[in-house]
Amino acid sequence: MSDKFPETLAMRFSSQSFALLAFLAIPLVIVLGVLAHQLIDPELARGTADYVGNYALLERLRQACLILSFALAGGLWFLAFGLLLVARQRSLLWLVLAFLGPLGLVAVAVVGRAPAAGGERAAWPWRLAREAAIFVAIVVLAHFLVYAKNEVLIAWTAASRGVESAVIIAEQTASSGMWAFGEFLQILFLTGLFYLVRPLVGRRKPT
Prior knowledge:
- By secondary structure, this protein is an all-alpha fold.
- The chain has helices at 9-39, 51-87, 102-111, 124-161, 165-174, 176-201.
- The chain starts with 8 loop residues before the first helix and ends in a 6-residue tail after the last helix.
């Protein structure tokens, strides 16, 4: 057991739980930042004594809300990754893997916790194969969930507007690049979420 990260079940659960909470806060922070950016209308300065100055001030404020939300989201991501490393008894130097996004979580999952003295290196081929299969299953599941969400969204939008689903699909196709990028981000988020939840539901009892 590492002296740097003395393990107790309560400590691991706490670190994993706070990592999950920090990760779940990321989309909330981004949505609030985008909402604030949209609500702050520089044209509110119309009719004031210093229209040009007030317009520029409001424009800077709305841009600052957007930048701050993304910066805070990045901080939450590194916080979640750091807490996961603490729970896995890994050095914080592994934090560099956070730049890989959710793929960094895959790497941490593969190496697992800090190895005990005389670890079983012979189990590595099996472990890598198992983690590769788990990764493929998680990505496929995330893709399916995003696809199902989109189908429900298309049906709901078509019903609320009183048009055929083909009309909504055509509108999405017209901006297919934006929709594809959004779906890619959703898949990345769900992949990271599954990897953070997985240790909480599959913890092994300490020996």
